[in-house]
Amino acid sequence: MNTDTTAATTTDAAAPANPAPGADAVAESASILGGEAEAKAPGGEQPGDQSADEPKREGAGEGDGEKADQSFEYEFELPDGMPVDEEGLEWAKTEFKELGVPPEKAKALVDRHVKGIEAAQQRQMAAWEQTKAEWAKQVRADPEIGGANLNETTRLGNAAIKTAGFDAETVELMKHAGLLGHPGFIRGMRKLGGFVSEDRFVEAAGAATERSIADRLYGKSD
């Protein structure tokens, strides 16, 4: 009898106490549903609800960035002679307006960009002038077309250009492209000028005969 009583007492002591009905039901439901169901505090208030008397947090509900001022108008003055990319300029104005950049600041940015373009153009022009100067140096030092032969090279080159029938506009274009100063072009014009200058020759009988273009360039065929 005593042994059975002890066993029963031990069993009753080890048994867990019954939880209060529905105590963890809401929390368990919220865990299962991934947070979609929220436990409510007594009185129907959501945990973390902001009290009506608590001041609204600064910036709540407002955009993170500054709103663009749609009243901004942009006018830019570009240097005379500078090509204007109208499409790019309109794109820049739109970007400035969307970002809320004030007109005076936008003008400063454009002015800085223009100065960068002008500096790049000056560097290109300086490099081109240096290249032409180097070509002229090579021509003067060349024993075939320069030095003591420079005047003859000029005469024969002018004769070649005249015979080829280049008009003044084409000659100016070749000059602008640097061809008239290039050593290879000058050498070719001298050779061509030599051919066209020998436009007449004397046959064995002594009669002067007009030479054909083919003869001038490739020599008289048998």
Molecular structure report:
The chain is an all-alpha fold and 222 residues long. Among the domains are: 63 residues, no CATH class; 77 residues, no CATH class. Helices cover 54% and strands 3% of the residues. The protein has eight helices and two strands; from the N terminus they run αααααααββα. Helix 5 packs across helix 7. The longest helix has 39 residues. The N terminus and C terminus are likely disordered.
Q: Helical content, roughly?
A: 40-55%
* Straight-line distance between termini: 150 Å
Strand order of the largest sheet: 1-2
Average pLDDT value?
73
Low-confidence stretches: 1-17, 19-23, 25-42, 51-66, 200-222
Topology of this structure?
Blueprint: H1 2-14, H2 25-32, H3 86-99, H4 103-141, H5 150-164, H6 168-176, H7 183-197, E1 200-202, E2 208-210, H8 213-218
Antiparallel strand pairs: 1-2
Helix pairs in contact: 5-7
Please tag this protein with its features.
mainly alpha; 8 helices; 222 residues; single chain; two-stranded antiparallel ribbon; disordered C terminus
Briefly characterize the structure.
By secondary structure, the protein is mainly α. Helix content is 54%, strand content 3%.
